[in-house]
Design brief:
about 325 residues; alpha/beta
Length: about 325
């Protein structure tokens, strides 16, 4: 075991904005927590640490070379592309992630976005509070007719833990499930399709695949052209899976009916993003993962990862 290791958290605010204490981690060493770390301060703040925790703060080869005492990086997420794992391995630095913590929360958010597109609860609530119902001639009104999900087809691109959970929830709504994935899994409730056929068949397309060179902009102008003009696109996975310029154009031209996004290409979102003001586009600020229950699981697994490394039995290693 490393005796009283120096542990540095580079960007801890999103995991613990005040409701998810670091106490268990602090018991494992000399802990310093930074809410956020700009790139020019990474090497300075991590200097002398044997263990570094990061969520979105990048640890590239150049930074890792400046940290000769670093032995373990705990990524506060499932995705670990913020760390140059090849450079870490060459330097003898182990890297671990948290492979599962937010499945239920993210799957639930998929349906929060989808149901908002189907019912526009927020818009209609605002209309009622603005007096539209009070002034209405009839007992009922709507800005657009609600959409019933039963009998519709949801197409899942990617079928890992979250994709499978979304499939379960979709079936509870009475939806048909089709999927496209690098590896097909036995699932009696899923019809496997190639990507082109899925895009053409689905009333709802929901993205659950990792971001790779092959999936970057997998939803581009050509993919959007294959979708139905009544279809809805949901993305809670990674922003760069979608060509945002093409999506904004497809929404403006009513090529598809709407989009619900929790992630964008470049976060925080740029003020000049083509999606700003795009019609029928609901955007939330990368919060699908962030329920307190999910963040507590993330914290506990991270503590377990650090503890396992310290006793010489590292777990959840990546790279």
């Amino acid at each position: 075991m490393i005796g009283s290791p120096r542990i540095v958290v580079l960007d801890g605010h999103t995991l613990n904005p005040g409701d998810n204490p670091w106490d268990d981690l602090a018991e494992l060493g000399d802990l310093t927590v930074h809410d956020r770390t700009p790139s020019e301060l990474i090497a300075k703040r991590a200097a002398g640490a044997s263990i570094v925790l990061t969520n979105k703060t990048r640890l590239d080869a150049g930074i890792l070379q400046k940290l000769p005492e670093l032995r373990f990086v705990a990524v506060l997420a499932t995705g670990y592309d913020v760390v140059d794992t090849k450079a870490a391995a060459a330097a003898g630095i182990a890297v671990a992630n948290v492979p599962e913590y937010g499945t239920d929360s993210v799957a639930q958010h998929v349906f929060a976005l989808l149901l908002e597109l189907c019912h526009r609860v927020g818009d209609h609530n605002a209309a009622v509070h603005a007096g539209e119902w009070q002034r209405a001639s009839d007992f009922s009104f709507w800005h657009q007719p609600p959409i019933e999900l039963a009998g519709k087809t949801i197409g899942l691109i990617g079928f890992g833990r979250i994709g499978r959970r979304v499939a379960e929830l979709a079936r509870a709504f009475g939806m048909q499930v089709v999927a496209h994935s690098r590896s097909e899994r036995a699932d009696a409730g899923v019809t496997w399709l190639d990507l082109a056929d899925l895009l053409a068949a689905a009333d709802v397309v929901s993205l659950h695949c990792p971001l790779t060179a092959q999936t970057h902009h997998c939803i581009d102008a050509a993919a959007l052209a294959r979708m139905r003009d009544s279809a809805l696109l949901i993305n809670t996975a990674r922003g760069p899976l979608v060509d945002e310029t093409a999506l904004a154009a497809a929404l403006r031209d009513a090529q598809i009916a709407g989009a619900g996004l929790d992630v964008v290409d470049g976060e925080p979102m740029a003020e000049d993003s083509p999606l700003v003001g795009a019609p029928n586009c609901i955007i939330t600020p990368h919060m699908a993962w962030a329920s307190l229950a999910a963040r507590r699981r993330l914290m506990q697994t991270t503590v377990d990862n650090v503890r396992a490394f310290l006793v010489g039995a590292p777990r959840n290693l990546v790279g």
